[in-house]
Amino acid sequence: MTAAHPVARTVGLAKAFGAHQVLAGVTLELSEGRCTFVAGPSGTGKSVLVRHLVGLLKPDAGEVWYKDLRVDVLDEEALLGLRRRCVYVFQHPTLFDSMTVTENVALVVKYHKGVKAAAAEGLARAQLDRMGLSRLAESRPPELPAGEQKLVSLARALALEPETLILDEPTTGLDPYAAFEIDAHVRRLKELGVTLLVISHDLQSIRRLADEVVFLFDRKVRYEGGVDGFFHSADPVLDQFVHARVEGEI
Ligand SMILES: Nc1ncnc2c1ncn2[C@@H]1O[C@H](COP(=O)(O)OP(=O)(O)OP(=O)(O)O)[C@@H](O)[C@H]1O
Ligand SMILES: [Mg+2]
Q: What pLDDT, on the 0 to 100 scale, is given for residue 5?
């Protein structure tokens, strides 16, 4: 898959933690305005891979690019600028338990957009309203079920109006209704032309939303291409991943 306009890309990325080689030569390209799903068994390095895209990890070898920025050599100040444009929503929500939902969203807006507290709160409330989440405005994260915490994390990211959004397992562990609600927001973002990278094992979400699929396995990209090719691959590794899950869902 060679993207006509790659927004973000890694070239030959390698990363080890001690003796554990997690990634060995991973090349990935995100096309502008497309929704790329990254799938693969647990522990295969999906989160490690995407953390490189926003400079949270430095590769041992290879390059990371965001448009014309060489991400792996950026200093912390430049990385902050990058993280306003390319927002990473962590696998596990990182909300402050002692703050309300509005305060959580406003804090990030204030920090990244450099606006005053009152303006940040206004923007936070507007974002919650746009996503139909005003009912949660005064709640605190520990009071909310997992699906609503994930929605709040998404609202916090979207309040920054990112051009690229990376969602790390946004529906994992959620009931089908909550997962559907998250997917509906992802679909709207697609329609708005936001470039998306979604890490997910959720085959329903892949079918519903993916333009491209990347399958990571054994430190490398095992498959990259369209959704049909992913679901109908002759590769036994992919076939097992896809069909074991499908049978498990029935
Ligand atoms: N900071 C770290 N230090 C040491 N090992 C790490 C670190 N971060 C990740 N790893 C290891 O790298 C491997 C890949 O981790 P990663 O979180 O990327 O997997 P994943 O594909 O996202 O899995 P999951 O589907 O469970 O989220 C794991 O074995 C993990 O323990
Ligand atoms: Mg992960």
A: 73
Res. 245 pLDDT band, cuts 50 70 90 = low
Task: Look at ligand 1, atom 24, and give the residue with the nearest C-alpha.
Answer: 42
Q: Which ligand is nearest to the CA of 202?
A: 1
User: How many angstroms does the Cα of residue 170 sit away from the middle of ligand 1?
Assistant: 17
Q: Tell which CATH architecture fits domain 6-92+163-249.
A: 3-Layer(aba) Sandwich (3.40)
Residue 50 C-alpha to ligand 1 middle, in angstroms? 11
Question: Is 214 a pocket residue for ligand 1 (Cβ < 6 Å)?
Answer: no
Pocket test for ligand 1, best of 47, 88, 215 (most atoms within 8 A of CB): 47
Query: Hey, what amino acid is at 249?
Result: E
* Residue 61 pLDDT greater than 70, yes or no: yes
Atom 25 of ligand 1, nearest CA residue = 42
Is residue 206 left, alpha or beta, with left meaning phi > 0 and alpha meaning psi from -120 to 50? alpha
What mean pLDDT is predicted for residues 198-203? 92
The Cα-based distances of 232 to 22, 203, 209 in angstroms read 27, 13, 17
Task: State in Å: Cα 43 to ligand 1 middle.
Answer: 5
